[in-house]
Design a protein that fits this description.
The complex is a heterodimer of chains A (117) and B (110).
Chain A (H helix, E strand, L loop, with lengths): L2 E5 L2 E3 L5 E8 L8 E6 L5 E7 L6 E3 L7 E6 L4 E6 L8 E9 L2 E5 L3 E5 L2
Parallel strand pairs in A: 2-11
Antiparallel strand pairs in A: 1-3, 3-8, 4-5, 4-9, 5-6, 7-8, 9-10, 9-11
Chain B lengths: L8 E4 L5 E6 L10 E6 L6 E4 L13 E6 L2 E6 L8 E9 L4 E4 L3 E5 L1
Parallel strand pairs in B: 1-9
Antiparallel strand pairs in B: 2-6, 3-4, 3-7, 5-6, 7-8, 7-9
The chains are: A mainly beta (117), B mainly beta (110).
Chain lengths: 117, 110
């Protein structure tokens, strides 16, 4: 059974940093692109970033370029999102997701990030 | 403003057939496959349709997808109360080099 479990969310002040982690199990992690997708309170889904199997390619939505960094550790079956210079508009539930053609196929339960003074 | 355009709401009565549209452009739907997701209140999204019209194992055949040109549609037949949820379309966008989602459609079963 595919499982994706996020951790690391919480309350942070504007300008602060946070690192999200995602522990993957139930599939060959190193064989898949992986993504982070977020959902602001009461809003729709927004793709944040994704990363190729060997981390040789990474893509980001414009609003987080230069502030967020996606990475992975295939030996630990883990995906990460380092978030710096956080803004109020980054407040959202962040989902870790396994990618397939057209978009994610499996999603984690989400981790809430709140950016507030 | 989402790159993919969906109606914000849709509704139907039990047993009815409803369709949800998703409009894009040549750089996303026009050149890549479309996925559809169902999000029940308070839960993570679930893949409903992939590669335009394929159902993952476990998804009832009441759900079907189609694509034509730069638009896609999700059809739900034999509507049930448990289908009340938010539905999102998604595709890769070659110009943005990123995944794009529709704004979501809230389906109400009357």
């Amino acid at each position: 059974e595919v499982q994706l479990v996020e951790s690391g969310g919480g309350l942070v002040q504007p300008g602060g940093s946070l690192r999200l982690s995602c522990a993957a199990s139930g599939f060959t992690f190193s064989s898949y692109w992986m993504s982070w997708v977020r959902q602001a309170p009461g809003k729709g889904l927004e793709w944040v970033a994704n990363i190729k199997q060997d981390a040789s390619e990474k893509y980001y939505v414009d609003s987080v370029k230069g502030r967020f960094t996606i990475s992975r550790d295939n030996a630990k079956n883990s995906l990460y999102l380092q978030m710096n210079s956080l803004r109020a508009e980054d407040t959202a539930v962040y989902y870790c997701a396994r990618d397939r053609e057209g978009g994610p196929d499996y999603w984690g339960q989400g981790s809430l990030v709140t950016v507030s003074p | 403003q989402s790159v993919l355009t969906q109606p914000p709401s849709a509704s139907g009565t039990p047993g009815q057939r409803v369709t949800i549209s998703c409009s894009g452009s040549s750089s996303n739907i026009g050149s890549n496959t479309v996925n559809w997701y169902q999000q029940l209140p308070g839960t993570a999204p679930k893949l409903l349709i992939y590669s335009n019209n394929q159902r993952p194992s476990g998804v009832p055949d009441r759900f079907s997808g189609s694509k034509s040109g730069t638009s896609a549609s999700l059809a739900i037949s034999g509507l049930q109360s448990e289908d009340e949820a938010d539905y999102y379309c998604a595709a890769w966008d070659d110009s943005l080099n990123g995944q794009v989602f529709g704004g979501g459609t809230k389906l109400t079963v009357l």
